[in-house]
Amino acid sequence: MKNRAQYPVYLDFNATTPLDPVVVEAMQEFISPEFGNPSSTHFYGIAPRRAVNKARRQVAEFLNCSPSEIVFTGCATESNNLAIKGISMALKHRGNHIITTLIEHPAVLEVCAYLRRNGFEASFLPVDEHGLVDVRDVERAVCERTILISVMHANNEVGTIQPIEEIAEIARSRGIILHTDAAQTPGKVPVDVKALGVDLLTIAGHKLYAPKGVGALYLREGIGLEPILHGAGQERGMRPGTENVIGIVGLGMACELAAQNNEQDARHMQTMRDLLHTGIEKAVRDVRLNGHPEKRLPNTLSLSFRGIEAGRLLEEIGPYVAASAGAACHSGEVTISHVLAAMQVPGEWARGTLRLSTGRTTTREDVIFAARVIADAVNALRSS
Ligand SMILES: Cc1ncc(COP(=O)(O)O)c(C=O)c1O
Q: 241, 259, 277: which is the final residue of a domain?
């Protein structure tokens, strides 16, 4: 029955994406021969400097901001750290309270936990059963000490898209800075900083068909930020350190591609995701969808199989399908992800959760095959 190619079908695009060949081609020149330091004033600095400037324009155009509002970083984790610690430190004279949510990536949760250990207060907002934040909860959490709200654009596990525009209205009316972790959204839904109304926004190269080791932070003109790294003056002193020219060129090209193909890509990913979903649903019982039925990333499919242990399911399908679990088993103890826990997904379902995510390169054959493999494995585990 399972007789497909030698490599498992990749359905984990929310974890990372392969490099787009056009991105690889753009980077090639800066692997060799253009090795220069963009800060060098001599001949060898010229091409790398121009390339970094071009990438800054490409990213800015994609996000609908000015190139001077882009800070290149090493990853989404770094962008989140820079945004949250940077604003907190810069505004600590005004207040010490941060609002975030229970379903953020650890790259936000752990930053807030760190700040809490260092004199700040943080409110972690709950979500409903679809993983959606209630804007009224944001309003209720605001106090006169609140300096920053950080709410993710879309969740990496279940794909729920948050009402950032509405949260932005609250933030603006109270003079509070708003950051969003948009690591998961570029190329899937429009990411326009002006339409969203955010002051800071995080993106990562490797979720967008660019390489690992590069990210960016949108920092709205006029917002003061305390850098977390101190050194020479690169990135206007916001992120000193010699630029990752190869990665930055890749991120720039990836943004240009995403700007060109956003809608087409999103439609394709959604068609593949829905085909996968219906294929599985037709062949197994007791399966439920996590995440918002509509306000959800077009590529993300978090499914819970009642009574199944996700680790066992991943073992079964591993040679054929690459996916992630929503629960991890350590020394016989199953830990449910903090996202599913916040959504109050009952344990007997949450323990059997798979996160499947499609991408630009996912094919119809991939999802038809994967649906069959997953359904067979669930049915076999249930009857064993
Ligand atoms: C929403 C979100 N934020 C932040 C990160 C961290 O990204 P990185 O590991 O590139 O720093 C991820 C990665 O999965 C993510 O999904």
A: 259
